[in-house]
Design a protein that fits this description.
- The protein is α/β, with parallel strands linked by helices.
- Helix content is 45%, strand content 19%.
- It has a five-stranded mixed sheet with strand order 1-4-3-2-5, covered by helices on one side.
- A hairpin with a 2-residue loop joins β2 and β3.
């Protein structure tokens, strides 16, 4: 045996055959490992974002009928309109049937099922003395992500092709 064969035999270790698959490089060293890392990181960030900003236990998500009932009772202190979403504060905390909780809520949010082009809802709210705030259309995280996702996909493909060329 020559010197090269002896070195290869010593490196394979005792009890291991020369072609042992555990000594071969892993297939995950290519594109898969960083891809899994970035996907996991994205999911963790999305989970943290939705936990911090998505759920507010003090806010009741009520139906439009319950919202109009609170207007009739004069129990609306402040209303914030954001497109067809309305949220606000109540003068006196109330319980709601749609929430399925015996707790009382002082904040609410609801959706307006139709565009209020003739501003009847605004007139009813002004008659009760509620503070009315209108916010411009918000650009949420998912809207930004969807806007940039084609570019992110193209950059990802370009990255894969460049790594394959090396």
């Amino acid at each position: 045996m020559n010197d090269f064969d002896n070195r290869r035999d010593r490196n394979s270790g005792p009890g291991r055959p020369k072609g042992d698959p555990s000594r071969e490089p892993s297939r995950w060293r290519g594109v898969g490992r960083p891809l899994i890392f970035w996907m996991a990181l994205f999911l963790v960030v999305a989970l943290i974002y939705s936990t911090l900003y998505g759920l507010n236990p003090e806010t009741a998500e009520i139906t439009y009928s319950e919202f109009t009932e609170q207007i009739k009772n004069g129990n609306i202190a402040e209303v914030v309109f954001e497109e067809r979403q309305v949220s606000g504060k109540l003068k006196k905390p109330a319980t709601f049937v749609s929430v399925n909780s015996p707790a009382t809520f002082s904040q609410f949010k609801s959706r307006i099922p139709f565009p209020d082009d003739n501003y009847e809802l605004i007139g009813k709210l002004e008659a009760t003395g509620a503070k009315i705030v209108a916010k411009p259309e918000s650009t949420g995280f998912w809207q930004i992500f969807l806007a940039f996702s084609p570019w992110i996909g193209l950059l990802f493909l370009w990255f894969i092709f460049m790594r394959q060329m090396q």
